[in-house]
Design goal:
The chain is α/β, with parallel strands linked by helices. 44% of the residues lie in helices and 15% in strands. A hairpin with a 5-residue loop joins strand 10 and strand 11. Helix 9 runs parallel beside helix 10. The chain is globular. The termini are far apart. The structure holds ligand V47. Ligand V47 binds next to strand 6 and strand 7.
């Protein structure tokens, strides 16, 4: 019989939680107990440290051939507000980030209908021309699949050429929720969950590290969430290539799903999801509380529910904000450090691979 006590015993003994354990936790209303276990599990790995980095998001285009129902960012090519950044604009944004002390550029975009593969490589070279020391975390598995199709090249060749042009690691976007029944409804044009996992596996085997995400709070069940986490944990067992897991709460504003009545899931679900992820993903070193989607207050409280990373300064964010996220567009490094200290933790500025840069 599964109970909170039996789960607590497993956690204390370092024993892996089963899918049924995770389902039990999602169904439980004992948020404080779940959070306490997750905080304990996190401290065993990360101590009192909470990580953040100085980064900048850069969305090179919002033009996208897919029509995901959760997305407020995408545009058709001829639609008002559609854009594709030129090399000069990418260079100037990267330069601005460098002047602000950024160590990382997080660059992603829509699936553009006509850009050749070479254009993506050129974007990487453009950022690196500003400073080879800027870590380039770019292109989700969904974009990499698009490049493979556009170029006709095998996946490992695409990844190899991207690396040659300056790609350092990959963000975790595009995972959404793997369960086919929900995924088809949510984003029927998008690559399958299996393909997302295949691309990440290939990237890890090519020596690229990446993150993993899960979009929750739309139409998925608890079982779908556990299925998603379980597939990530299995892949991590095989490759060890994931750096961090990021749970992304759905922001309904300006999205087709809002018109179907989907509303924000709320703080209890946010904190429980982070805590369950910390407990279940025993082979992930880091769980991010991404303040952009969670909001500053929930992200800070998440540090007592198993999260050990607040992500970064971001500067300008479009994907969550076009969908109504009410967090600020960016956050100063001092402010991030203050939030962490006020939660009773030690802020540590990290690089993209979690090397510690400085204590604050
Ligand atoms: O892939 C899109 C999600 C992702 C909405 O790897 C939405 O370090 C909520 O992946 N409401 C992009 N989420 C963001 C992302 C990310 C962010 C920060 C850090 C990292 C990392 C990755 O945002 C998309 C999609 O899953 N998304 N629309 C929405 N309305």
């Amino acid at each position: 019989m599964i109970s909170l006590a039996s789960i607590r015993e497993k956690v204390r003994g370092g024993e892996r939680l089963s899918d049924d354990d995770a389902l039990f936790l999602f169904a439980s209303n004992d948020l404080a107990e779940i959070g306490e276990m997750a905080a304990w599990a996190n401290e065993r790995t990360n101590g009192r440290r909470v990580f953040y980095n100085v980064n900048r998001h850069l969305n090179y285009t919002n033009i996208c051939v897919n029509r995901c129902r959760f997305c407020a960012f995408r545009r058709d090519p001829d639609e008002k507000g559609a854009y594709l950044l030129r090399a000069g604009e990418i260079r100037s944004l990267a330069h601005d980030a460098l002047l602000r002390g950024a160590t990382e550029i997080h660059m992603v975009g829509g699936l553009h209908p006509s850009l050749p593969f070479e254009a993506y490589r050129e974007m990487l070279r453009t950022v690196k021309s500003v400073s080879p020391r800027l870590h380039l975390k770019a292109f989700t598995a969904v974009e990499v699949d698009h490049m493979a199709r556009v170029s006709g090249l095998p996946l490992n060749e695409v990844l190899h050429r991207l690396r040659e042009s300056g790609l350092d690691s990959m963000p975790g976007g595009g995972a959404e929720i793997f369960a086919p029944s929900v995924r088809t409804h949510l984003c029927g044009d998008k690559i399958s969950g299996e393909r997302w996992l295949e691309i990440m596996e290939c990237a890890h085997r090519c020596g690229l590290r990446s993150n993993a995400t899960m979009l929750y709070g739309h139409r998925e069940s608890h079982a779908d969430r556990v299925d998603h986490l379980s597939r990530l944990r299995d892949l991590q067992d095989r490759t060890g290539g994931f750096l961090a897991f990021v749970a992304l709460p759905f922001q309904p504003g300006n999205t087709p799903l809002k018109e179907q009545g989907v509303r924000p899931c709320g703080g209890v679900d946010d904190l429980k999801t982070i805590a369950v992820a910390r407990l279940f993903l025993d082979n992930f070193a880091h769980i991010k509380a991404y303040w952009v989607m969670l909001g500053e207050r929930i992200a800070q409280v998440a540090l007592a529910f198993g999260a050990d990373d607040l992500d970064g300064t971001v500067v300008e964010e479009k994907i969550g904000h076009e969908a109504g996220a009410d967090s600020p567009p960016g956050m100063g490094r001092d402010h991030l450090a203050r939030l962490i200290r006020a939660a009773g933790r030690e802020p540590v500025e990290r690089d993209s691979l979690y090397n510690e840069l400085r204590d604050r």
